[in-house]
């Protein structure tokens, strides 16, 4: 038997310019909300064709933009849930944290690094360097953030006893709403994509990518497509 999880990047939100997205607390834009609603309706059409229903617990990051996206999915797809849906927020699903310098502009973060004699100059592409971790309390690398997401997904897999051959939740799709970079790095840890794909791929706002887990079988991708990253893309 198999279990399915839909990985969903939050919708477009009021993102500060030149600020690593990290823990920005702002809501979805009006356009972002409408885009998520359309994506949810399209996903509902696929659920109807395949004959699948949704797990009533929707897992979301604690950040407002992800929670709002999750709530929109519960509103638009209410008829597909196996029982009354609820959104549960988890810090493990948040974007990569930059710690003590959260929500400062990139230029200011680099200025702080230069002012502190204990710190070395970061690599030029530090924002997208999967291994680099800023030397501030609470900061983590993109790979560390991805490991959090992967661990959360693995815990869900074991909870539903996929490897013991039990059938709890079979036929239900689990919704997980988070953030593009941490989801992609999580997908790498799960062997869904290769390391070289992390920078090449992105995620469409509000668009689900469904992964199917079966006993002793490679993870399969069902509904949804990765976005081919463009140079001008807004950072995750």
Topology at a glance:
Elements: E1 2-9, H1 30-50, E2 53-54, E3 57-61, H2 64-76, E4 86-90, H3 106-115, H4 142-159, E5 172-178, H5 180-189, H6 197-200, E6 201-202, E7 208-214, E8 220-221, E9 227-228
Parallel strand pairs: 1-5, 2-5, 3-4, 3-5
Antiparallel strand pairs: 1-7, 6-9, 7-8
List keywords for this structure.
alpha/beta, single chain, two-stranded antiparallel sheet, 9 strands, globular, 236 residues
Nearest-angstrom radius of gyration? 18 Å
**Based on CA inertia axes, which overall geometry fits?**
globular
Quickly count the helices.
Answer: 6
In round numbers, the mean pLDDT is 91
Which spans of ≥5 residues are poorly predicted at pLDDT below 50? none
Question: Beta fraction of the residues?
Answer: 15-25%
Count of extended strands: 9
SSE arrangement, N to C: EHEEHEHHEHHEEEE
State the major sheet. 7 strands, mixed
Q: Percent helix among the residues?
A: 25-40%
Structural class: alpha/beta
> How far is it from the N-terminal to the C-terminal residue, by CA?
34 Å
Task: Give a short synopsis of this structure.
With 236 residues, this protein is of the alpha/beta class.
Give an account of the 3D structure.
With 236 residues, the protein is of the alpha/beta class. Helices cover 32% and strands 17% of the residues. The strands form two sheets. Strands 1, 2, 3, 4, 5, 7 and 8 form a seven-stranded mixed β-sheet that branches. A two-stranded antiparallel ribbon has the order 6-9. Strand 3, helix 2 and strand 4 form a beta-alpha-beta unit. The longest helix has 21 residues, at 30-50. The two termini are 34 Å apart. The mean pLDDT is 91.
């Amino acid at each position: 038997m198999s279990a399915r999880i839909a990985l969903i990047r939050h919708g477009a939100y009021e993102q500060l310019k030149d600020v690593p997205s990290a823990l920005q607390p702002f809501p979805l834009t009006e356009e972002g909300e409408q885009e998520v609603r359309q994506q949810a309706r399209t996903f509902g059409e696929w659920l109807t064709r395949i004959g699948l229903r949704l797990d009533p617990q929707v897992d979301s990051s604690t950040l407002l933009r992800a929670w709002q996206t999750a709530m929109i999915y519960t509103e638009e797809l209410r008829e597909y849930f196996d029982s009354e849906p609820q959104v549960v927020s988890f810090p493990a699903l948040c974007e990569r944290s930059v710690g003590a310098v959260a929500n400062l502009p990139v230029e200011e973060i680099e200025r702080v690094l230069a002012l502190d004699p204990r710190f070395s100059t970061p690599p030029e592409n530090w924002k997208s360097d999967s291994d680099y971790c800023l030397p501030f309390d609470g900061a983590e690398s993109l790979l560390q953030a991805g490991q959090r997401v992967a661990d959360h997904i693995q815990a869900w897999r074991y909870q539903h006893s996929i490897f013991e051959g039990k059938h709890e939740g079979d036929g239900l799709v689990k919704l997980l709403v988070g953030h593009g970079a941490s989801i992609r790095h999580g997908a790498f840890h799960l062997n869904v994509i290769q390391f070289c794909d992390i920078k090449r791929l992105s995620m469409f706002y509000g668009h689900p990518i469904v992964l199917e887990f079966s006993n002793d079988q490679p993870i399969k991708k069902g509904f949804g497509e990765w976005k081919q990253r463009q140079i001008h893309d807004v950072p995750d």
